[in-house]
Design brief:
The complex is a heterodimer of chains A (198) and B (231).
Chain A (H helix, E strand, L loop, with lengths): L34 E9 L9 E6 L25 E5 L5 E7 L4 E2 L9 E2 L2 E8 L6 E6 L10 H4 L12 E2 L11 E4 L2 E2 L9 E2 L1
Parallel strand pairs in A: 1-10, 1-11
Antiparallel strand pairs in A: 1-4, 2-3, 2-7, 5-6, 7-8, 9-10
Chain B lengths: L34 E2 L4 H4 L11 E3 L2 E2 L2 E2 L4 E10 L9 E6 L24 E5 L5 E7 L4 E3 L5 E3 L2 E7 L7 E6 L18 H6 L3 E2 L10 E4 L2 E3 L10
Parallel strand pairs in B: 2-8, 5-14, 5-15
Antiparallel strand pairs in B: 3-4, 5-8, 6-7, 6-11, 9-10, 11-12, 13-14
Classes of the chains: A mainly beta (198), B mainly beta (231).
The complex binds fe (iii) ion.
The site of fe (iii) ion has 3 residues of chain B, from strand 11.
Chain lengths: 198, 231
Amino acid sequence: MKTKLTSSQTVGPFFAPLLRGDLSQMVSAETRGERVVIEGRVLDGNGDPVPDAMIEIWQANAEGRYDHPEDMQEKRLDPAFHGFGRVGTNARGEFTIHTIVPGAVPAQSAQSQAIWQAPHLNLIVFARGLLTRLVTRIYFPGEIANDSDPVLCAVPAGRRATLIAKDIERLAADKAASRRLCFDIVLQGANETVFFDV
Amino acid sequence: MTVVGYRRPAPGINPDNNSSAYASTRARAPRHPAIRIEHTLSEITGPHFETGGASAIDLTRGARGEALGERIIVTGRVLDDDGRAIAGALIETWQANAAGRYAHESDQHDAPLDPNFAGAGRIISDSDGAYRLVTIKPGAYPWRNHPNAWRPQHIHFSVFGTGFAARLITQMYFPGDPLLAIDPIFQSVADPDARARLVAALQMDVTVAEYALGYRFDIVLRGRDATPPQE
Ligand SMILES: [Fe+3]
């Protein structure tokens, strides 16, 4: 290390210019993979909605490949999917992400044999009152791979559920719609979401 | 797949979210310590944005004339902590105008808006990691953290480097600002040297005669213990 790091500071309440362009819609008609809509709320330690949070999403494509030069897996890139999203919460603390279910990606492995991570979205949460960004993940309900995911397994069993989205019942008339999931982000308190030190 | 992770910041560089002098942290800072995980492909990869975007922008030329206030130049480089330039980094800035007012619907400060100053910019660092911003020196503004609370003059910076783990949002301050000593957000950085690095340096070689004072502000992101393999 020759130079010294720049410290984090809060995003504050006035980050609206970062939200120009609709980056909550991560898919287009050509994107490969199963569509999913993730709805959630950001809540504070009093259970009150956080109306000024900004969430960033980074994920692999449907085959489990990140659109990044260091992902050298022999899987196809999807020209219609980059994998980055950004969304702000509304006055009720709500956010909605339109994306696809990513494929599995490999984990760090000392052996040549890969250990696979369960499909997940990587999230960063910024808000007034957060001096340093919070990092979490969204996993998908009903995935058998969740049981052996090395990151989920590093979380105390009693808190793992905070990282797994919940299915929202589809309306009978709405069968053709995308899969809908709910994922609330609780910043503080009894049901506090697990955040990671990366 | 062997992954070379990012180095961890030394203690005192990034603020503790439990910093109660900053009132908004009290109900928002998590109480559980963050769970440390080793970096995987998910953490070392990250989004990239259009390359070839402008590395130098000017926010002072409004549609109907020049923005009001003291014109300044802010320039610097995006680096990793090995001193390597990060080319193609996306830098987004936003700030108050000269009167201390944001062009934002929820800014209730009773100070005038400037129709020629939107106060937000988007820059892509060049092949040397360099960027250049011509803007207006932002005013101090009141906030409701405690009675008679004022934020020091600052410009917000959002930076995407190479990987999602290195994602950074910070604020740049100005040298000699007496509010720095009593600002709970600036003071939330425990390491005094790290605080000093958030204060831009007045530089006469950046200053343009008869035009604008110049400040240098380098942004240093986390590096890695081995050079990542090339594409
Ligand atoms: Fe501000």
